[in-house]
Amino acid sequence: MTKILVLYYSHYGHVAKLAAAIAEGARSVPDTEIVIKRVPELTPDEDAERHGSPSAVPLASVDELGGYDAILFGTPTRFGNMAAPMRSFLDRTGGLWVKCALVGKPCGVFTSTGTGGGNESTIISFATTLIHHGMVFIGLPYSCPELADISELKGGSPWGAATIAGADGSRQPSAKELAQARFQGKHVASIAGRLKQ
Ligand SMILES: Cc1cc2nc3c(=O)[nH]c(=O)nc-3n(C[C@H](O)[C@H](O)[C@H](O)COP(=O)(O)O)c2cc1C
What we know:
34% helix; 6 helices; binds flavin mononucleotide; 19% strand; single chain
């Protein structure tokens, strides 16, 4: 079995919906076990205000990351970078880095933006941390049919799946954005499976 972690932070629920689609795509690859977890808010106040991330989704611990064959990370943008709770979680992975615990593991990143700023830079800047860990970064290839489709407003890029939440957060992930997320999950899971063999 190839064990894959979908690890996300989501304050208003958009990244959580993409995470479910990523997991669905990954699950479609035979002999794959999918675990979905989230990173905690930084303060109890933020936790109380959080929307859309069902409490049924468990919190991840830093130490468990080394136990997966591949990891897909999801975060909303904050001024073009990952959100602080994800940054804080990753800043506690120094012990894993010392042990080279994530070296050679396939990974990918997906995101959500309010108006589109950060659609690519959030993932590109996120990749810096993953490359320092020696992970193998996998993007969203143009063999995903929706990627080159510009018939409607849509997040996502060759760097990874994304949605556009709207300035007030009212827009929900579209069918094409969810299809891109499913494709990314399946793509990373199938590469992880082949690497594991
Ligand atoms: C401090 C802060 C900074 C943000 N910066 C950006 C930004 O640079 N570009 C953008 O399009 N949206 C920005 N947003 C909007 C968030 O990306 C949006 O709330 C998020 O994508 C929703 O994802 P979620 O529902 O998973 O929390 C920002 C939001 C906050 C709170």
